[in-house]
User: Which sequence fits this backbone?
């Protein structure tokens, strides 16, 4: 159930703050007297000032303090000396080259950002980002960051994020056609979500000039990605969607260490995922039921809204969501095979709707937009998100293929030269190959984990390079 | 046990810069908890009052937020306090509300304790580095330091040192605030000496159980010492010790909040109205639970909201905007961020540095002629200097990487290695 509690209000006020950023057209008052004496600098190098509003101007900074810069250049064709607050400025690019055909003190650049924001009359604009494939590999920080940067430039009214991650047996070396059960838990994928989640929440609030309505449309959110939709107050489910795969937190770490150590590890994880729900405006009871086996949770509907009880049902109208999974209440293999277990919660469309987690059940984008109240017409923005995600997928697959080949190439370089010059040339080739492997790993930013395939990581490669360099130094004729 | 929520926001040591030659004499501060303190106002900024008074016969100085007091009654016969840079309130100004300043809003700096990538207490959050930042903060004329905490914990040995730096060096100089994004284990223990704590909506705080090896928790005498250490640190932050105890060991905790907002904690599941920690579990607070029991003074998603939650009608968040950083970066924070990056690089490459040193030393030792020996000895010396530089930048590396317990051990080790290189050159 969603609440308009403190977190909701916090989000609301953050929106207002986000919109307060003022660009050069509105912010500055023109100071005809020129730069102030205090802190005055010589006419500086040519700079490009990029405002948080997305607009830019090019000219010279003639005075600068911690709080402001005094800019001299042309705005709307008129040469002005203007103070700008640094809080309005996203970035100052210093030492930019004058554009050909323009004077040294350049006129303002085209105010349009690199990608033209959508202009569609009164029609709301919609940007769609689809997250599919393996979470942590195909669905990773870097391509999502790039796709959201593209979306930001297009200034959509709605950002629809489709979540449909792979939860097939192929993840475990089995068949792609066979889905994994609800009772498999990949809770610790949360640490990937922890890194990605701010892109959809605080980064948008802070850095986007125009605040979109972020809407998650869940087709499949199993494993750590299940927590991602909770970053937004708006979540929809497809008819056969499911969200879960993060249960049995109370069994995490099995028999490792002391009980108190295990409780600590579970407690800190529970605190973290509860925090995501609070930020999105959801009840933490739902998170507890998704993650913790011995959470006994019932609910009943009052005025169409659920009221939760942390106990078995006691009165008419109360429905058991999850039991404590103990003794004869432990899910049977028959229940688990049919996805009917209740030791931990897996949200399906109808239940998510009943509990108020989901705003509605929709099977097409048209249905979703209709439910959002923009059925009379909208513009679907032709963003680059699909291309970015698809290229990333191909790049990762290619990298996984390249890695063994590069490693084999490295190993095949034998240091057998007759003299030091020849041997050191071979060593230099080894270094070049290791550097190539390192770049490949770095380019895929945590999604390509070489140790997973039995190859050394970057730290180990650095040590190898360092040792080879010493070999070169030592090997003199 | 009573938890005095906000009555005494912070008893601070008398700092040199806070000592005006003259002050109000015979002032009375009426606190919201009903107490009336007799003493003198030594400084005021925007409704925040530094007040000197006697506590159990000992002269002390406390500082009070506008929420902490109902009114301030001044001695009519006393001479007015000298004006400070930040305007003192005129006598007829109603107290309790932030006042208009004559000049300049208070200057606040955000100092990050950890980030998503680098956040281990003792490695990326150290007392040594916090101490080093103070001159920079003073150069920037900072009044308020906000520690933005994002850490999954770390070395227990650093907790007391960090607590001491915050308590003895930061709190006397600055209004010191913790802003919690994630403070787990040693990070929560570090923050706990601070009275004024705010949460981000997703904030979490707790899970402070000490452990080592493959998940063996600290037991017996060392555990009792840790519990006692945190009782003392709880007292520094004016927090009920039962709260931290339930974060350290699986002791149940419940609480009741009365109509005045005062909180009573109980070390069981049933005596209090709010169950915070069931039997057998370890406590981690969220922003909601922290707010419910008054541990958090407010929830703020960004610095604008934080300023409001702190009761600041005006505040100058010092620093420049940087891409991807959700708060202005002042010079001290810039140093802190760069130091973390350098530490990450050093941590990642320390093994490489050591291997390089050992290898070049061995090459020097095995060299057949003096010239070659000299060349490799020079390389070994440069490697050793790089190692020394890392140890200076982050003294805990000495313990973690070389098992050297303190600065004296480090100096001995470095001198010994240097001597070995010199011996090689004498051959």
Assistant:
């Amino acid at each position: 159930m969603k609440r308009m509690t403190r977190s909701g209000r916090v989000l609301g006020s953050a929106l207002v703050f986000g919109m307060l950023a003022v660009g050069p057209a509105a912010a500055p008052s023109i100071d005809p007297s020129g730069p102030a004496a205090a802190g005055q600098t010589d006419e500086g190098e040519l700079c490009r000032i990029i405002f948080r509003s997305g607009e830019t101007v090019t000219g010279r900074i003639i005075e600068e303090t911690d709080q402001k810069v005094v800019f001299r250049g042309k705005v709307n064709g008129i040469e002005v000396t203007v103070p700008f607050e640094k809080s309005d400025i996203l970035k100052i690019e210093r030492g930019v080259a004058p554009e050909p055909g323009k004077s040294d003190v350049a006129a303002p650049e085209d105010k349009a950002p690199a990608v033209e924001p959508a202009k569609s009359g009164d029609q709301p604009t919609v940007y769609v980002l689809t997250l599919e494939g393996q979470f942590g590999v195909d669905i990773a920080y870097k391509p999502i960051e790039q796709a959201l940067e593209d979306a930001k430039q297009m200034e959509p009214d709605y950002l629809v994020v489709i979540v449909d991650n792979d939860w097939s047996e192929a993840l475990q070396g089995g068949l792609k056609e066979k889905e994994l059960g609800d009772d498999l838990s990949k809770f610790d994928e949360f640490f990937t979500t922890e890194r990605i989640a701010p892109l959809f929440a605080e980064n948008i609030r802070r850095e986007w000039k125009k605040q979109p309505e972020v809407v998650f449309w869940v087709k499949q959110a199993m494993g750590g990605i299940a927590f991602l939709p909770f970053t937004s107050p708006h979540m929809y489910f497809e008819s056969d969607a499911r969200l879960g795969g993060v249960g049995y937190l109370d069994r995490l770490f099995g028999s490792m260490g002391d009980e108190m150590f295990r409780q600590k590890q579970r407690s800190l994880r529970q605190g973290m995922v509860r925090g995501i729900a609070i930020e999105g405006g959801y009840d933490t009871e739902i998170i507890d039921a998704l993650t913790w086996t011995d959470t006994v949770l019932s609910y009943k509907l009052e005025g169409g809204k659920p009221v939760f009880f942390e106990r078995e049902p006691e009165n008419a109208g109360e429905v058991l969501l999850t039991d404590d999974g103990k003794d004869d209440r432990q899910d049977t293999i028959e229940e688990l095979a049919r996805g009917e277990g209740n030791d931990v919660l897996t949200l399906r469309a109808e239940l998510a709707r009943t509990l108020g987690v989901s705003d509605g059940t929709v099977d097409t984008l048209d249905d979703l937009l209709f439910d959002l109240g923009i059925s009379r017409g909208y513009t679907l923005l032709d963003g680059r998100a699909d291309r970015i995600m698809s290229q990333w997928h191909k790049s990762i697959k290619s990298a996984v293929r390249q890695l063994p080949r590069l490693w084999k190439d490295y190993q095949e370089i034998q240091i057998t030269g007759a003299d030091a010059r020849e041997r050191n040339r071979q060593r230099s080739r080894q270094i070049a190959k290791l550097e190539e492997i390192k770049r490949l790993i770095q380019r895929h930013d945590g999604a390509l984990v070489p140790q997973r395939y039995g190859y050394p990581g970057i730290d180990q490669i650095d040590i190898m390079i360092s040792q080879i360099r010493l070999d070169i130094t030592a090997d003199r004729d | 046990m009573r938890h005095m929520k906000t009555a005494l926001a912070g008893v601070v040591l008398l700092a040199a810069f806070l000592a005006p030659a003259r002050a109000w004499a015979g002032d009375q501060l009426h606190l919201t908890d009903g107490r009336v303190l007799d003493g003198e106002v030594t400084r005021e900024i925007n409704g925040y009052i530094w007040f000197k008074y006697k506590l159990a016969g000992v002269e002390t100085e406390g500082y009070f937020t506008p929420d902490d007091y109902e009114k301030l009654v001044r001695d009519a016969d006393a001479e007015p306090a000298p004006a400070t840079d930040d305007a003192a309130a005129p006598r007829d100004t109603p107290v309790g509300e932030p006042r208009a300043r004559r000049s300049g809003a208070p200057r606040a700096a955000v100092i990050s304790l950890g980030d998503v990538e680098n956040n281990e207490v003792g490695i990326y959050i150290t007392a040594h580095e916090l101490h080093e930042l103070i001159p920079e903060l003073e150069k920037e004329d900072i009044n308020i330091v906000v520690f933005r905490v994002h850490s999954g914990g770390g070395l227990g040995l650093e907790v007391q040192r960090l607590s001491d730096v915050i308590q003895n060096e930061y709190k006397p100089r600055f209004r010191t605030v913790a802003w919690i994004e994630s403070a787990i284990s040693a990070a929560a223990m570090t923050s706990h000496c601070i009275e004024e704590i705010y949460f981000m909506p997703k904030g979490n705080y707790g899970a402070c159980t000490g452990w080592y090896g493959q998940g063996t928790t600290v037991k017996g005498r060392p555990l009792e010492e840790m519990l006692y250490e945190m009782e003392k640190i709880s007292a520094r932050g004016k927090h009920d010790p039962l709260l931290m105890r339930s974060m350290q060991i699986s002791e149940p905790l419940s609480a009741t909040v009365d109509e005045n907002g005062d909180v009573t904690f109980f070390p069981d599941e049933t005596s209090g109205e709010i169950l915070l920690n069931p039997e057998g579990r370890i406590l981690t607070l969220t922003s909601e639970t922290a707010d419910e029991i008054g541990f958090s003074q407010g929830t703020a998603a960004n610095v604008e909201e934080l300023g409001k939650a702190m009761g600041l009608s005006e505040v100058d968040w010092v620093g420049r905007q940087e891409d991807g950083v959700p708060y202005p970066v002042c010079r001290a924070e810039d140093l802190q961020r760069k130091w973390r990056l350098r530490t990450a690089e050093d941590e990642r490459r320390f093994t490489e540095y050591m291997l390089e040193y050992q290898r070049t030393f061995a090459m020097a030792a095995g060299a057949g002629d003096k010239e070659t020996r000299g060349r490799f000895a020079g390389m070994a010396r440069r490697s050793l200097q790089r190692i020394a530089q890392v140890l200076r930048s982050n003294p805990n590396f000495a313990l973690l990487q070389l098992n050297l317990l303190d600065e004296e051990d480090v100096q001995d080790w470095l001198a010994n290695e240097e001597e070995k290189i010199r011996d090689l050159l004498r051959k």
Summary: The first strand of chain B starts at residue 2 and ends at 3.
